[in-house]
Write a structure and sequence with these properties.
The structure is a homodimer of 346-residue chains.
Chain A (H helix, E strand, L loop, with lengths): L12 H8 L3 H8 L7 H13 L12 E8 L5 H16 L3 E6 L8 H10 L1 E6 L6 H9 L4 E4 L15 E4 L1 H14 L5 E4 L6 H16 L9 E2 L5 H13 L6 E3 L3 H13 L9 E6 L12 E4 L2 H17 L8 E3 L2 E3 L12
Parallel strand pairs in A: 1-2, 1-3, 3-4, 4-5, 5-11, 6-7, 6-8, 8-9, 9-10
Antiparallel strand pairs in A: 10-12
Helix pairs in contact in A: 1-2, 1-3, 4-11, 7-8, 9-10
Protein name (chains A, B): Transcriptional regulator, LacI family
GO molecular function, one term (chains A, B): transcription cis-regulatory region binding
Pfam family, one (chains A, B): Peripla_BP_3
């Protein structure tokens, strides 16, 4: 029985093909990152090549002057800012940016992966929370660096810990937004979160809780409402919060777009902002100052994050073994006109 | 003297290089669309090759499964919708989308063009108004199809007429928006236009004028204000319109984003929408129903236009001599809550 120790003789292409039960041409496709091989077969052959110490040629394929961005929703206001940030940097470096969407927050289309392997870009920036380990391995086998940008990792996959990520200080952001409302005198504060399987949501909720508790108050779990980062969630959860008994005088929304949903819920109930309700958003998208009233929000420095992600791809190409800690850039509170103080003793 | 008639002997690569005073390797780069040749030299050699009937090999380079999109502003809400429309179609066809911005509404970066020639995509969809003739010729020499999508052509370059374009019915859109306001009883209607060098603006203004005149009224040129399609222009021009004597009771903005600028101008002057002012936008972006009040606007079917543009690229690859008339898709009025009737005899 042949072991996997270092003195196993190196396999030829034909031997690998025979062992895998495929043609030599299929093995060659996998080796050269060409399309036309199913993901399963590709993985199987990659593993076999690793196990049999196949001597990959030392002349790697040329790197295309492209950066791939993978998004969950290409047209979300958040993705747009990230894409245009990366595009600006890439253009300065005479590189193109390939933008792809996926319908699944936790995986890319197999056809997308095949395209990436085939075009061999400088690297991949993923705006979706995770890629399946299988897809990560296939990129790695081709030395194509992968960096995730918030959307953020699932809290429970942080143990995986081997995909470099660029994030922003979500805990601090949640804390700053909430402290701002507390400082204005609000005591009943609602929060609408992002999806609970995203680290960014979890960290912001933790910041909210920490601020409330630091102020010597207790957190009413009914005031924390879950939602996607969508307008419809801000509208629905905003309506629920604003029609409950002892309704909140302030709402901290998970995104600027959600905050606009809260605006609509308040408008339908004839609750004035900021006189009767303060609202804080999250992201500071270009539309935040255009809302009526202009939105107080937490600024996420997406341009800076995009720059950092691009820089990191290049560093990883130069040294694939580079160990990158998670990089977090600072968030900041931007006060506009959607928040106001309330009288503590009416 | 050697003529350009059909019996001119076909040149060899070396002869072309000698005539142009460059190396054979430079000519070869031009022939194969590889980078490293200045735009001027490339053009000169292309022309020489054409004149000398250089026999291009009949085995063309493979077409990369990519579509290039060129935008003026990658993060404009309009561009985002177009990009995500093309991306959805491209993904169904297992193609990637390369997104590039330019700082010039009338030209692409030379580095961009070089990248496109190098990667040989299915084709280019341009969201900027025009490309210089030189850049168009270089794409054509490589058989890379180019389709423009509104942004629209400059009115005065329509004579060029040889780049296929996909547009929407801007004249009808301008007419429908204005007629809606006239039907509600408005008689003093302001209009904020797009840039005057874009056909889309010109056509919408023409629609506005036609509707006003059809109603038996005359057009007050002071009520037609120029602007970019930006929030800042809606705010500035909206303010001017709303502070003039005999202020308009309705404003037709050139874009949804401009309309939000008008909202802000009205809010600052404490003019209520729709009670004291009706506002109509243009585009029907996702944010239109989220505004306060939800915006009445003209819907531009960007998804349909993106689909059409992608289809056209493929058709042009199959038959580069295909003659394509300009394609216009229909626009439609979407009535929400920013428009209301006024009392004609107060």
């Amino acid at each position: 029985m042949s072991g996997t120790s270092d003195d196993t003789p190196r396999a030829t292409l034909a031997e690998v093909a025979r062992t895998a039960g495929v043609s030599v041409s299929t093995v060659s496709k996998v080796l050269n990152g060409r399309p036309g091989v199913s993901a399963e077969t590709r993985t199987e052959i990659e593993e076999l090549l690793d196990r049999r110490h196949y001597n990959r040629r030392n002349s790697p394929r040329p790197i295309a002057p492209l950066i791939d961005i993978l998004c969950y929703e290409v047209d979300s206001a958040w993705a747009v800012e990230a894409i245009s940030g990366v595009e600006r940097i890439a253009r300065q470096q005479a590189m193109g940016v390939v933008v792809s969407g996926t319908n699944d927050r936790h995986a890319a289309d197999p056809a997308w992966l095949e395209g990436v392997l085939n075009r061999n870009p400088l690297g991949v920036i993923s705006l979706i929370s995770t890629l399946p380990t299988e897809q990560i391995k296939q990129l790695r086998a081709r030395n194509i660096p992968l960096v995730t940008m918030d959307a953020g990792d699932s809290p429970d996959s942080s143990g995986r810990g081997d995909v470099p990520s660029i994030g922003s200080a979500d805990f601090s952001g949640g804390y700053a937004a909430t402290k701002h409302l507390l400082d204005l005198g609000h005591r009943t504060i609602g929060m609408i979160t992002g999806p609970s399987d995203l680290m960014v949501s979890t960290a912001r909720v933790a910041g909210f809780r920490a601020a409330v508790e630091t102020a010597g108050l207790s957190v009413d779990p009914d005031l924390i409402r879950p939602g996607e980062f969508h307008h419809a969630d801000g509208l629905a959860q905003g309506h629920l919060l604003l029609t409950r008994e002892n309704r909140p005088t302030a709402i901290f929304a998970g995104s600027d777009v959600q905050a606009l949903g809260v605006y609509e819920a308040a408008r339908a109930l004839r609750i004035g902002i900021p006189d009767q309700l303060s609202v804080v958003g999250y992201d500071d998208l270009p539309l935040a100052p255009w809302t009526a009233p202009p939105l107080t929000t937490i600024r996420v420095p997406l341009a800076e994050m995009s720059k950092e992600a691009t820089r990191l791809l290049r560093a990883l190409r130069d040294d694939p073994n580079l160990t990158v800690p998670r990089i977090e850039v600072a968030t900041s509170l931007v006060v506009r006109e959607s928040t106001a103080s309330i009288d503590l003793d009416p």
